[in-house]
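Exercise: predict the fold of this chain.
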Amino acid sequence: MRNLRKVMSFAALALAGCASSAAEIKPSYVSPLQYQHLSCPQIAAEAERVSRRAAEASGVQDQNSSRDAWTTAGAIILFWPAAFFVKGDGQNAAELARLKGEFEALERVSIEKRCGLEFRRRNA
């Protein structure tokens, strides 16, 4: 019973350090003021660019999350020193949060300017 508690405590600590999935990353605040000078076609083009980059960053983030989950599982089941290879959230997660915030800011400006653009969120 005592060993089970130690294993469960270690597992909880190891999982806490895992990288988040792309869907779990919340947008950072980005001021819409930086996009106020753009025309509606420019807002659409910028939103497309941000969306493409966010999709790329989401893919990398999900790969990081899967890698950390497998490393953690290996550490818990097979070899505890493997837990030192769990990296957690890093620069990619911060970039994804910023990109999600930019997308929201572009959407706000589009609504204010009545551009009639449709902003679709991907699952990530």
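Check your answer against the key: The chain is about 60% helix and 0% strand.
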